[in-house]
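Two entries, shown back to back:
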Amino acid sequence: MAKQFPPKISSILMTPDPHYIPGYGGYCPQYKYSVGQSYGKLTSKLLTDPGIARSGRLILQPTHLPAPSIDEGTNHQLRSCKVSWADQKLNDVMIPGYTGFIPNMEHYFSKTYTKTCKDAIRQFEREQLKIATKKRELELITSLQSGNRKARTEQEKKLLTVRCSMPLRPTGTSIPPYNSPYSYKALGSPYLMANENPHKHFISGYRGFVPRAQFLFGAGYPIITNKALIEFSRVLNRSKTSPVPVGNSLKEGEGLPRIKSACPLTGMCCPTIQSMHQKPSFNLGTARKTISATH
């Protein structure tokens, strides 16, 4: 049985086959009666112990992985483009866990990380080669039309028949600038917009203060802020049109109250407060005179 499974790198560091990996939920004979070892070592001992009754056929089967296919053309392209990519750390074998940017990687999925990166980098390299080819073709057309180089092949002779001459020259001197009707325009502050403007509101998530919005509820944030800003604009316009009182508001002959009676200070007497808290005095002689007069 042991011959079916090839030996690993080290029998000391690695658990010998056959064994179950931690997390396996299947049945293992005599597992619940054995303790004192890790899951891998314990299952390896139970599966190879001849004194334990078990099935003669293991669930685990030896696997022979096919040799990875090597695309020499792709690897050659990736090795040739390392110089032009400068500091970009893109190669033919990307290690899982790399957090850098991989161009075109969002278009590939359902594969391992290494294969996904290889396909994405391959497409990126093809796009770069197309761009470089077109750039060299434009340089060749310029040199042929200027006479710096003579046409040698049929393809170069066809390039001479190009209608446009390189480099392209401007056809006019005073060309009016094009202003797109759909270009971005700053809307400005909602406080300065007209009340009929549909954009007179704050977007959801705005954390600033909106006047009079605390009294409104039961609707979405844009609707609430729109109503609050409209009400605030009305109050502000009303305050601008109403006259502001100017001058002395006191009537003729009316002055400020006396400080002594209005604001009692330390060490000063307040007649009003003193009269409120003064206890009445009792005179016995005055009381007798009053009683005798009544009788």
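entry 2 starts here
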Amino acid sequence: MVEQIAATLNEPNIDLLRTVVEVIGVERAQTFLQKTLDIEAEGGLMLAGENRRRTPGGVFFYTVRKNIPTAERKQIWPQTGGRQHLQRGQPATPPPRPLTWEQAQKVAIKLQSATKGKTTVKVTLIGRPKQVGKAQSCIVCVMEDRGAPASMPKGLPTPPINAKQTVTVFIGEKQWRKVEASLKENKEDELIIDGWPYFDPAKQMTLVLAQGVTTKLIQRGRREEG
């Protein structure tokens, strides 16, 4: 469940997610995940006093924190407000400036020459396909990125303005049959796809082979039935 939430919301704080699930349980964590997806679909939440949106993970933690008993909240966030308070008279250290996008690219290129570890790469796509076609043994969907989120966790480089990606997704026919009717009957429904991505440098395009496919409404229905 922790991995599912992290992948769906692109949330890097795995330790905090694990604590949340351990304290409130899988079923309630699933409920809060769906609430988060609903909030994001409606435009997300703004940070108090700031002109920027919370990250999807931030919306999840905020929703959990506001809707659980005090005893559980203290188990997850033992310190008041979830942050350490500076002692009086102790000067705050200014945070370092985030990398520019150009600096981030240079760092990434430099690290390419370092010794590499092995990892499993996985992406989660949420949205409606722009185009759908059939190619022999599978269904091919073209999905257009909505662009970079309005806000990123503090310290991350800022993506270029209007940066968008078009992703081509290959879905098995059996997987597609499970979601096709819901997408056709409910214009507001959206796909949730977990898959393996591959960037083709020659074609300058990203392909994704779907490993798990569902929709928001199907996922919500299963939770209500359970």
